[in-house]
Design a protein that fits this description.
The protein has 422 residues and is mainly alpha-helical. The chain has helices spanning 17-21, 28-32, 39-51, 60-96, 106-132, 138-146, 157-172, 191-195, 199-214, 242-252, 261-271, 278-324, 329-361, 372-405, 412-416, and strands at 23-26, 56-57, 218-221, 230-233, 236-240, 256-259. Helix 4 packs antiparallel against helix 5 and helix 13 packs antiparallel against helix 14 (372-405). The chain is globular and about 85 Å long. The termini are far apart.
Length: 422
């Protein structure tokens, strides 16, 4: 039975031999989380990577995702410093108001203000040090040194297109990994754009390819806790998906296993006879869960917004049909105006999306730190923004012209239109 179902029987914790011969492969989130950790935790993880330097490796896709998202993560951490300083200022102001609750003595308030000022000063220093990484990133340099000659080659365009087609079939059948990212489907025509929902699958295929080339087992360390990587039951993570272990065994003839970062660090400490501080393991775990919750919240918000837009579109379409069935000039004008209102709403939504995407992906554009590819993408978004603004101006003029030709501006359609902004 074990030979028929290897994914259900392999227990790496009871078989440390795999650590002596395996290649350790790291996901992009492991590298990006180095910017989220405290100095002590970061140093411990980097030193662990350095200790395994001869047996570590990352797919080209992982290196690309790390470098492409590094500045965004740095900016997110800087924003946390600003919010914390603002919260301390708000608390100080509330305590200094002697005419309303909560009340504290002047002596205690003086002691608190001293502590608050000290905390804000340290937070400000840390914020400045973190912001410096936008242009002078020593963490990136250390990662580059550790993974020198340890990065896989880029996939050819033909290979990516082939993987996309395979991924479509795998995702339909819920074959791990990556099917949880099917909702990330995109309309982009470039191979990289089309491949975005299949990033995990591309990484997985590269892991298998590396295992074949080296004829060695592999341990994959990732902070991605989704069900398309992990077997879960009653809210508990049991281990890697058995399908992954079985596929790797079938393709490579060697063992495969996975760890979340905190378990990897803990187990590496056991094997190297080195005690890993509990508070560091807890920090890594908490940081991973916080990041995962943020992603889930963003995805939940996106689904809600999509549902709202779809509902509004249905309502708008009903109103449009009501206007289109009329025969006289008055109602024909209103029907045309309804079309323009809907088109205006769509354009405004797109403008908001462009502004949001620009702010999220290129918040540092004004610093002049964009690479060639990022510069082209930024300029493309900027050009689309200007084009949409021009369209919006033209539509506003048409709506105004139609309004001047309507003798009854309080007609029912205008009063009931879900997009009425006149």
């Amino acid at each position: 039975m074990k030979s028929n179902f290897p994914g259900h029987f392999f227990q790496v914790d009871e078989n440390h031999e795999i650590w002596n011969e395996c290649i350790f492969v790291f996901d992009a989130n492991i590298l990006l989380n180095l910017y989220r950790y405290s100095d002590e935790t970061r140093e411990l993880l980097i030193s662990t990577l350095s200790g395994l330097k001869e047996r570590i490796w990352i797919p080209n896709k992982v290196a690309f995702e790390y470098l492409n998202n590094r500045l965004k993560v740095i900016w997110e951490q800087q924003d946390k410093y600003e919010k914390t300083i603002s919260e301390i200022n708000s608390l100080q102001q509330s305590l200094e108001n002697s005419r309303q609750h909560p009340f504290i003595s002047k002596e205690v308030l003086s002691e608190l203000n001293t502590s608050f000022d000290k905390a804000k000063s340290e937070l400000g220093d840390n914020k400045s040090a973190h912001a410096e990484r936008l242009t002078n990133d020593k963490i990136k340099e250390r990662i580059a040194e550790i993974f020198e000659n340890k990065v896989g080659p880029p996939d050819l365009e033909a290979e990516i297109l082939e993987l996309i087609e395979e991924g479509k079939q795998r995702y339909k059948s819920k074959i791990p990994p990556g099917y949880s990212d099917a909702k990330k489907d995109t309309d982009e025509d470039s191979p990289q754009g089309k491949a975005r929902p299949y990033s995990d699958l591309i990484i997985w295929k590269n892991i298998i390819k590396k295992g074949k080339q080296e004829n060695r087992p592999i341990i994959f360390i990732t902070g991605d806790a989704k069900e398309d990587w992990w077997l879960k039951f009653s809210g508990k993570t049991i281990g890697p998906r058995p399908e992954l272990i079985a596929e790797f065994k079938s393709e490579v003839g060697k063992d495969f296993y996975m760890y979340l970062p905190e378990r990897f660090l803990s187990l590496s400490g056991e094997i190297m006879k080195k005690q890993m501080p509990r508070e560091i393991l807890e920090e890594i775990r908490d940081s991973r869960k916080e990041t995962q919750k943020g992603k889930e919240a963003a995805e939940s918000l996106r689904r809600k917004l999509d549902a709202i837009k779809e509902r509004l579109w249905i309502e708008q379409s009903k109103e449009l049909q009501k206007a289109l069935i009329t025969k006289n000039k008055h109602e024909s004008l209103l029907a045309h105006k309804a079309e323009l209102i809907i088109e205006r709403s769509i354009i405004k939504d797109r403008i908001e999306e462009i502004l949001s995407e620009t702010k999220t992906r290129f918040p540092y554009a004004s610093l002049g730190t964009l690479g060639d590819q990022e510069e082209n993408e930024y300029l493309s978004l900027k050009a689309e923004y200007l084009n949409q603004e021009e369209k919006l101006s033209s539509i506003e003029a048409q709506i105004a012209k139609i309004q001047n030709n309507i003798h009854d501006p309080d007609f029912y359609f205008e009063r009931n239109s879900p997009n009425n902004e006149q």
